[in-house]
Inverse folding.
């Protein structure tokens, strides 16, 4: 029997319409999504009639769950303050990014997690039936599974089992292009898999193809812990070499002071599209989650004619696995070294504040929350006229990386936020014969006014303090 609190989302157990059965000539893997909801929090969606009705229907469940929480009976390890359906929607986008077809979505409502199978025996039986009826290839849980839960579910269900962290690791493995990115993904995979080796069965032996079977390559996970530990040590050594090379490159860059500005934000907030708009780099910009994995650096000239390096980084997500944060520290060093962070947010998202909190949580792990940060509300082209006016009234940096709206204001804001070499205004008298100094000012500063006094040129300029200091020292 199912618990009274158990429920399936509308359409669970039947194929979701409108999805392609094949990707090119390759059949898409068919996935069943399973979410877990403690029913402890109201929805954080934008207010509306549908949400009001849903809140009214759930009021009894919320009161019951709150009572259980006060009694200390509810696990705090739940995905986050998104409502259950929104959490599963986001998880479905992750699954599509991994290249699978979602054929069913199931939601388990419980006030206590089952220590053996996470979701309870009744729901497991339901999933068995759905998997058999729809020829499912895998079952994906929007929650991390303990080693015991994973082993039990593998024994009970007729297809592969993956939890949230395994899915994210698989997507990272797909998108890693550089040697550094591949090393970091492999390190994260092994660190996550190591405590889960004992008793693993079918999923451990299928290292060929399919979501979750994209293993670390040279090391087969059926081997003993000692061999895997040796591989972990080797990977850490190689990544330390990467960090050493990065430090040397950074030292060469810092010899000629060029500040770095890093783009950070929730996955699919439009960072790569904005990066392309600002730099013309032409890097991959995709609506799929984690399309950007390897960092990109490009030079950018600001309105003041100062040059900076703009860095595009991997997107963050709710409950980003800690193994990824630590493994990707070499990549995220650009965030740690940046003078200014541009926090790119999706202005069209119903869960903007939740996404902001998740990004700040990762920035806290990187110990960079004290850095100057500019919030950039992207995707304003997806907003209604009224919503765009509301953003303007708040005085935020609102841009559309697609249309280019607001980009000039963003560049000026970056100019103002750079403090290492601040902009200063100066009045200078330069001999007309001193062509080198005049050329340097033309190239590196904004000429506000120019008058001639005999053989001298009177210039009113705005430029970096370092440049003005060099000009004054050389007169």
């Amino acid at each position: 029997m199912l618990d009274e609190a158990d429920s399936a989302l509308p359409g669970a157990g039947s194929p979701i319409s409108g999805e392609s059965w094949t990707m090119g000539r390759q059949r898409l893997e068919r996935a069943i999504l399973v979410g877990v909801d403690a029913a402890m929090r109201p929805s954080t969606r934008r207010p509306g009639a549908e949400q009001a009705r849903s809140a009214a229907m759930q009021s009894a469940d919320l009161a019951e769950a709150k009572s259980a929480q006060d009694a200390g009976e509810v696990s705090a390890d739940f995905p986050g303050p998104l409502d259950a359906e929104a959490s599963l929607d986001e998880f479905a986008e992750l699954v599509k990014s991994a290249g699978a077809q979602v054929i069913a979505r199931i939601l388990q409502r419980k006030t206590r997690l089952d220590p053996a199978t996470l979701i309870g025996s009744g729901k497991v039986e339901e999933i068995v039936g759905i998997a058999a009826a729809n020829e499912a290839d895998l079952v994906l849980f929007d929650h991390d599974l303990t080693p015991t839960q994973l082993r039990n579910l593998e024994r009970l269900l007729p297809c592969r089992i993956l939890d949230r962290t395994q899915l994210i690791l698989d997507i990272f493995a797909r998108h890693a292009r550089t040697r550094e990115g591949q090393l970091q993904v492999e390190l994260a995979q092994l660190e996550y898999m190591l405590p889960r080796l004992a008793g693993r069965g079918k999923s451990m032996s299928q290292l060929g193809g399919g979501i979750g079977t994209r293993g670390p390559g040279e090391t087969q996970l059926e081997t003993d812990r000692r061999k895997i530990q040796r591989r972990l040590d080797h990977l850490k050594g190689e990544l330390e070499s990467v960090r050493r090379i990065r430090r040397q490159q950074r030292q060469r860059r810092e010899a000629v002071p060029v500040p770095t500005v890093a783009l950070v934000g929730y996955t699919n907030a439009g960072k790569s599209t904005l990066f392309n708009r600002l730099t013309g780099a032409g890097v991959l910009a995709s609506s799929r989650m984690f399309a950007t994995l390897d960092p990109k650096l490009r030079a950018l000239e600001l309105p003041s004619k100062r040059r900076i390096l703009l860095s595009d980084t991997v997107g963050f997500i709710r409950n980003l696995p800690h193994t990824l944060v630590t493994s990707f520290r070499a990549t995220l060093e650009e965030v740690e070294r940046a003078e200014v962070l541009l926090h790119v947010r999706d202005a069209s998202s119903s869960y903007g504040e939740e996404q902001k909190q998740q990004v700040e949580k990762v920035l806290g792990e990187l110990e960079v929350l004290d850095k100057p940060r500019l919030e950039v509300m992207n995707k304003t082209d997806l907003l209604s006229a009224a919503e765009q006016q509301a953003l303007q009234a708040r005085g935020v940096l609102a841009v559309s990386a697609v249309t280019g709206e607001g980009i000039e204001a963003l560049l000026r804001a970056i100019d103002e936020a750079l403090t290492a070499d601040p902009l200063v205004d100066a009045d200078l008298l330069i001999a007309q014969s001193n062509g080198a100094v005049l050329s340097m000012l033309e190239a590196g500063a904004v000429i506000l006014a120019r008058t001639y006094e005999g053989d001298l040129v009177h210039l009113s300029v705005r430029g970096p303090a370092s440049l003005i200091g060099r000009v004054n020292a050389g007169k």
Summary: Residues 1-25, 40-80, 199-208, 217-221 have pLDDT under 50 and may be disordered. The radius of gyration is 27 Å.
